[in-house]
Amino acid sequence: MADVLNVGVNLEAFAQAISAIQALRSSVSRVFDCLKDGMRNKETLEGREKAFIAHFQDNLHSVNRDLNELERLSNLVGKPSENHPLHNSGLLSLDPVQDKTPLYSQLLQAYKWSNKLQYHAGLASGLLNQQSLKRSANQMGVSAKRRPKAQPTTLVLPPQYVDDVISRIDRMFPEMSIHLSRPNGTSAMLLLDIWSKSNYQVFQKVTDHATTALLHYQLPQMPDVVVRSFMTWLRSYIKLFQAPCQRCGKFLQDGLPPTWRDFRTLEAFHDTCRQ
Questions:
Q1: Does position 186 have pLDDT exceeding 50, yes or no?
Q2: What is the pTM of this model?
Q3: I need a surface site. Which of 66, 73, 187, 230 has the fewest CB within 10 A?
């Protein structure tokens, strides 16, 4: 126990200093009591004045004496040792400040990324299941030999049909510029650059949603419907900064407008509101 208390402080002088503080407070209280009581218990005015002054001087001398004693004891107390062991309390300064720890933002970003990955994986799985070959159990039981692998087929459309479809879509969306090119002869190509990464976060999100829309609008038997549906969905972004969110009613959330457009209703939603 003595080793713990041996921190460079004179404990006996410390206890005496506490007593001196109490004595000083009592002396100061007597001074104010003397001032409060005033001149009393004397028949003549001169006698009352002399008695008051003498009593007041005695109280002031007591205050001065107690103050000098306290100063003397304060010099004997000493200073605490700088090498005082702090034990586990010395590790408090190593704890991170919660406001400066980006744990919440990192968890939120990982959660959004996980939801987006799960959503895109579900769309891709549905499309792959639609395109898969389905063989019945009877066919598998009857034929002992392996069926020949189906050859891949492509949808070949006449150039005039493609030109008519693109021209109709161009007339449907006069505010959008649509160009059709044929770099390899009769093969037509409609170029939509949704893969180049923008410097702005809002357009990066639009690019991600457009990639999802390309996976959603898949109908190989009716390519004109696919193109028209995708262009109709893409045209809904003409009011990207004007349409409020259909769920929360706000124009901005986390500094971004509602970047998601529903595939059927084309209504605007924030990423967190569409869940």
A1: yes
A2: 0.39
A3: 187
User: Which residue's entry shows tokens 């006698």?
Assistant: 47
pLDDT tens readout for residues 73-113: 888 877 666 565 666 666 666 666 655 667 767 777 888 88
